[in-house]
Design brief:
The protein is mainly alpha-helical and 176 residues long. It has two domains: 9-69; 75-138, no CATH class. Helices cover 55% and strands 0% of the residues. It has helices spanning 9-18, 22-35, 40-47, 51-64, 66-69, 83-95, 108-119, 125-134, 151-161. The protein is elongated. The termini are far apart.
Length: 176
């Protein structure tokens, strides 16, 4: 494989070892190996890439150097919530349910409803979970607690109620 000398072998080795973008590091490693005289099947065995992929790396590198190996920006669907609305949504979720929500804990369906009513953004349930994940929220949910619950009374109940329990008879063993 003919590799143009945009960089020395040592420079390429240093570049691929210091690169934090894993796919780009693999491409640079492929170029490094090609510059050291390895053939395509050998590079394929080391990088785990297909023959045509390795050939494309070398072709791109020969035309434009390391910059040509980098991923080009990809378009995607536009965000339904702007960055400003995402921050407002994050604050709304952090604040928890309101009386208007009529819930003690926000779940996916409730959050979907909030997005539609308060932010005008229509998401599928999967999309809601994906958005929450992107914003750093987890799926863990605290045990719901009634808004009128009194922690002091609950603790008192836990201390005194065990004395009132009636011990049940031992269960009947199962057949073997």
């Amino acid at each position: 494989m003919n590799v143009k000398s945009h960089h020395t072998a040592e420079q390429l080795q240093k570049l691929y070892r210091n690169e934090t973008n894993r796919p780009l590091a693999c491409r640079i490693q492929g170029i490094y190996l090609a510059s050291k005289g390895l053939n395509c099947p050998q590079i394929m065995g080391i990088t785990g890439s297909a023959r045509r992929t390795v050939q494309q790396w070398v072709s791109k590198y020969n035309k434009g150097g390391i910059e040509a190996l980098k991923d080009s920006p990809r378009s995607g669907a536009p965000l339904k919530l702007s960055q400003e609305h995402q921050q407002a949504f994050r604050r709304r979720i952090d604040a928890g349910p309101t009386k208007r929500d009529g819930l003690s804990v926000l779940n996916g369906h409730a959050i979907k409803k909030i997005l539609e009513q308060e932010f005008g953004a229509s998401y599928s349930l999967w999309g809601v979970y994906h958005l929450l994940h992107r914003l750093g929220f987890s799926c863990l949910c605290p045990r719901p607690q009634h808004e009128k619950a009194d922690p002091k009374t609950q603790q008192e109940f836990k201390k005194t109620s065990s004395k009132r329990w009636i011990k049940s008879v031992q269960s009947i063993p199962a057949r073997k």
